[in-house]
Structure formats: C-alpha cells, structure tokens
Design brief:
The complex is a heterodimer.
Chain A (H helix, E strand, L loop, with lengths): L29 E4 L2 E4 H14 L3 E5 L1 H4 L4 H20 L7 E2 L23 H8 L3 E5 L3 H14 L3 E5 L10 E3 L4 H14 L17
Parallel strand pairs in A: 3-4, 3-5, 5-6, 6-7
Antiparallel strand pairs in A: 1-2, 1-7
Chain B lengths: L3 H4 L9 E2 L2 H6 L4 E6 H10 L5 E4 L6 H13 L4 E4 L3 H13 L4 E5 L1 H6 L3 H7 L5 E6 L13 H6 L5 E4 L3 H15 L8 E6 L7 E6 L4 E2 L20 H5 L8 H29 L3 E4 L5 E5 L2 H15 L5 E5 L1 E3 L3 H7 L5 E3 L8 H7 L8 E2 L12 H11 L13
Parallel strand pairs in B: 1-10, 3-4, 3-5, 5-6, 6-8, 7-8, 12-13, 12-15, 15-16
Antiparallel strand pairs in B: 2-9, 7-14, 11-13
Helix pairs in contact in B: 3-4, 3-9, 5-7, 9-11, 12-15
The chains are: A alpha/beta, B alpha/beta.
Amino acid sequence: MSDYRVLPGPEHFLPPAAASMGICLPNPGEAHINGVIAPEEKAYEEAARQFLMAKVPTIFPGPLVLWAWNEKAAKKATAVRHLFNTLVECVQPGQKPMLIPMPDYRPKYPKINPEVEINPNHPNLTIWHNRIDCCMFIGVHCHQANLSLKIIRGGTSCYTIAMCAQAGHEDAMLSFRDASVEKIMKLADTVKRLKGTVQPRLASAKNGVSS
Amino acid sequence: MADIHSVIGTKNKKGQTYTDTWKMMNEAPRTPSFYTGSEVIKEALRRASCDVMIAYPITPQSEAAALIGELFAEGYIGDYFRGESEFAVMSQCAGAAFGGARVFTTTAGPGTMRAMENFPMWSGARLPIQMIVTCRGINSPLSIQPDTLEIAYLLNTGMLVWHAETAQDFFDWILKGYMVSEEPDVHLPLALCCDGFFVTHTKDVVNLTPADMCLPPYDPYRSPVPCMDMECPPVRMMRDPFVMKSNYISYATHASWQQEIWAAVERSRKHSIHWLNGLIDTENTDAEIMIVASGTAVSQGREAIRLLEDEGVRCGLVKVKTLRPWPEEEIREATKNAKHIFVPEFNVTGWLAKEIKATVPNHERVHAGPHVCGGMTMPPEIIVSEIKTALGMKTFSLAGRGS
C-alpha cells in the first residue's frame, strides 16, 4: 500500500495525480479517505464532519445534475438542493454554505466570474475568491472532476469531497463512488445528525487561501 | 440512454444474446477451431458488439480488415468503410468514438507510424478505441516482415498497450480489452499488438466462445468526458484556449490533463489484472536464469527453456502481457531470484530490455538479447546459445555451417 496521502494543499507547483502515487479507487460499498480505503459509513461521518467544520462549505454541482437530461438527473438535483438546505440549517453563525455550479467545461476567458461559477481549468480562482475551505463535487464528468481536484490540491488548502456516480476519485481527499439519490440523502441525514457536535474552525480558518 | 444490465439476456438483430462478459469468457463452453490469427480477429469482432470498424490496407493486417468487411456484410458490425489513409482512418475512428460508438480498427508498421499523431489525441480525449497492431518492419528499405519496433513508439502515447503471444490471446484479449478500456475510470484507447505473420498468418487451434453470445453494448453515458460537443473540451480547447494562451493557468491545466491520462493508465492496472488473470504469467520463478519476453518471443523462450532442461540448465520465464500498464512490481518480484535475466526481442533497439533494466534492481543482471529483426525468425537455439555463452558454457555458433 502506498505511503502517499491525499491531503489538503497547497501541495506543490505541480502535484502528482494520486493514482500515479499508488492510490487506488474503492470497490463498490467502499469509499476512500485521504487515499486510504474506508467503509462507506465512515466516509459519511467524515464528510459531514468536514462540512460542519468548514467556514465556507460548498457544493459544486456539474452538468450531469444541473440539467434534467433524464429523470434520474432531476431527482439527484433535488437531492443536492436538499443537502445544501440541510447545510444551511445545520451550520452555526459565521459559517456560509454556498452552492456554485460548474455548468460546463469551456475555458472561460478573458476572466471567469468566480462569484457565480467554477471551471475545471482554473477551479482555484473560485476557491480563492470565495474563501472556500471545504467543497464537494457532484455531477461533474470524471475527467473534469479529476482535473479540478488536482489543481485545487495543488494551489489551495481546501478540503475536497467527491460524490462520484462512477468509480470515485483518488484526487479528492474523500470520495464516494456509485453516487445515487439515496447516498446524497444519507449524507444530508448524517449532517443533520451531527449538527451541534462539531466545532467550526472559524477562528483559525485560512479559508482555502494559500499564502 | 443505454442501460447495460437491462440488455443482458436480450438479443441483437443477428439473434446473438447480449451476455455478461465474465460469464461469456470464463463459463461459456468453448469450441476448438483451427484458424489463422486474421480469422480469429474476425471471430472476436463477431462477438464484440462493435458499432464502427474503419479499414485501410497495409500488410499484414489487410486480411483481417477485409474479413471484418464480410462481418459488416453479414450484419454484425454497425458501420464499416475504408479511410483515405491510416491518418484519415485514425481521425475517423476518433470521430466515431467522440460520437459514442464502440470502435475498432487495425493497422501495421508504416501505417501505425503514419497515424501516430492521432494516438495521443485519442488518449487525451479519453476515447476507448481498440486498435489491432500487427507489427512489421517500419524503416527503409521496405520490409513487410515481422518486427516489433513500432511498439516502442506507442508506449508513451497514453494508450493501453498489450502484446499478444498467440491467436488465443488475441481472441480473448480483443473482447476483454473493451471491458478494460471502457471502464469509466480508464476510458482509454487500447493498442493490442501482435507479431505480424507469426500470429496473423499461421493457423492455430483457438477455443472460441459461442457465436450466439456477444458483449453488452458500449454505454457512452459512463464516459468521463461528454460526447462530442463543439462547445465542450476537447473540441473547444482545440479551436480556442488553452493551447492558444500563454499563461500559468493554461500550462497548469494542460499538465493536469496529461497527468490524468497517465493516472487512467494506472487505474487500468486493477481491471487488467482482473480480466487477464495478472499482467504477467510466470514459470519457474525460483530459477537463477530467467527469460523475460512479450509476444511470440515468449513462445521461443518457452522452447529454449525445454532445450536447456535437456542439458540440465534450469530456467524460468516471465511472459509480459501488458506493456501499458507496465507490470513493474510483478516483474521485480518474479525476477528477484534471478542472477541472469535474458530479454529476447524481435527488434533492433531492445526496447523491452530497456524497460526491464529500468525496473529491476541490479540491472547488470539484464542481458539485452538475443535480438533479431527485419523479418528474421528467432530459433530457440539462439536463445539457448546466448544463455550458455553468458554462463561460460560451451556453445556452437549458429551463424553458419563453416567452410
């Protein structure tokens, strides 16, 4: 097993892909936390804890859940909205949950508006601008999610979570696989259950900004 | 939207049953058949639920390409046509794959070289195209004979590269190859190589799966990138930034993109091990003398081992099945007891020996050879001779009969 751990950055001028450092994706029924395979139940707890600790916990929904291209996508979008509303209900004063879409993957020039969107080619700009210290990707095509997750790990201290509908993401600090409406709802339930039990790191937050 | 599980057990327009691939490959009855390698390619494609095959003639793959045309005429392939050149073929394969089709093509030697620009594009665009490479000489003066030099050029394209030893490997790996390269965490093209003529034009007994079973269709909705859209990468990136921009973000994005391709090659390791029963096969790994080879050099190495056994020399074998992903740990483990590692190859540069030297500790143990190329055969006796010479044993020259 690899000694490498997938941790919040800023890691490197050009951090390695976690897969090339020996980090493997979880099998069905599993997740990974920091690159170590873990039971999915533990991942729900850790993801919820990270959300509740963060000053700006943020969900980045991608095209696969933003557009109602089939019935399943529409249901997932409703579940994502429910998770966001749950975060809003469960955080303490001073915490600011956000929901920022990744509507497409086009490079945005001359300048992205980080207030309203995130882009896989320069996701760090949205993280820095909004001082996001914990985020979750959902509904982003796997290739684009991996690009984003690695660039975020390279240049920010943001904690990254992937709720992936396929095999998961090594480049996130925590990754679920085979995401479904049920899994999103279960994460929301876990956030609700842990409400008030986790101390937000408001005083010491660096808010995803690398010095 | 296709749902793979919902079509299992149903029939396609030819009356074949979409079958769980693991069951089809491992549990279904097999029928021994006496076929050339080219005919085996056709029989594998008959069972592959392939949407598009694009052909261009170049020896020694022309026969396979033509036979697949017959499959199209019989209704087993969705579409089939001849491109204008190998470069055009590979570009057309990309177009079909961008559009969400399961794509197959075949090429060889100078054709591979002519089309080379497309291969990193395929992998960069995450297109799970399968390309058969029936290796032959590539340099001037022209040779159509077996030579594996072209594989060396494929190793850094970001494609998966497998090297079949036999027609049986070919049959099984064409079908299993789609299962690996279409995994969403892999989703890369596969170059399935063999030694031209030795495999394509010789007959062998091959155990075929039932012709009335076929692979489940490709599901493009599991792709890690969207199907082609002029407003989405990679198309948008080809006509727009970031290749046209000179700034840190553009460079960093492109760097991350490249890393992601090689991460996907790494991820294919798990799936390749599952489907191929390991990235290498081994025999006698406790021996102090090991032969490490890929392709038909494995067969020659196996025969050399038999000859050496007759002389009381114990020798082991590593058959390298996948060159990408590279079985680094497996080779290190399999050769840990070896004092001498011989790497017979059908090419002049010894690219496999270089890979082995970069992999094993104490690489002075690696003997890069014997080499043959340009269509020469590799009699097992020359492997035996190379080994005996290295061991200080008396051996006879195979170069000629003397005056």
